[in-house]
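Possible regression after last week's pipeline update?

I re-ran a chain I had predicted before the update to compare outputs. Posting the input and the new output here so someone can diff against the archived version. Not blocking, just want to make sure nothing changed silently.
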Amino acid sequence: MKKLFGTDGIRAVAGQAPLDAPTVHAIGLALAHTLAVKTRSPRILLGMDTRESSEWIAATLTSGLTAGGASVESAGVITTPGVAFLTHTHRFAAGIVISASHNPWQDNGIKLFGPDGYKLPDAVELAIEEEIFRQLASSTALPQQTVPPEVNEADRAEYVSFLLAAVPGLSLDGRRIVVDCANGAASSVAPQLFSDLGGEVITPSRINVPRVSV
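New output (post-update):
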C-alpha cells in the first residue's frame, strides 16, 4: 500500500509534509537513486505550474536529484502533457511536473513520468517511497538551499511546434482570439500557439475592462 503517492503523484499543502523541504529533497534523492539502478547519471526533465511554491520546490528537488547523481533540465512553466511529450521525445530517464492541477492555491504536488512519458508503475513508486523513508530516517540535516536549473526556452517552443503539427492546415488568419489561461501552466504556450496559427491574440493584460461604479 502506497503511503505518499496518490492517483496523480504526491500532493499536499506546500511546506507541510510530505511537501516540506526535507521530504521534497528526499524525493529527489530517492528518484535519482532508483533510476541509477538502470541508467548511470540519469537525465531528468523538470516542469512546473505558476503556483507561488513551485520555485522553491523545484530548487529543493533539484538539490536532491543532483546529490543523487542525476542531471536536471528545466522546461520552466509548461503543461503536464508538455513534460510527458518532451520526456519521451528526448529520452530523459524521467520527467517531473510540479503542480497540483485543480487543487487550491496553497497546495502543490510532484508528478513523475517514466521515459515513455507515462506515469511510473506502482512497483516503481513503492520502491521510491521506501527510499524516501530511508533517507528521512537517516538524515537530520536540512537540505542546502539551491536554485532551480536554468530554463531551456527551446523546450516550450518545441512543444508548441508539436501541437501545431497535430492540426495540419488549420489557420486562424483574420481572427481575434482572447486567451485567458487564468495563470495556469498553459499561459506559457497558448498565446504563442494561437499566434503561430495566424490569429491576433489578446491576453487579459491587454484588455481594457470598463470600471463599474457601485
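Follow-up from reviewer: compared with the archived run. Residues 40 and 69 are 8 Å apart (CA to CA). Marking as no regression found.
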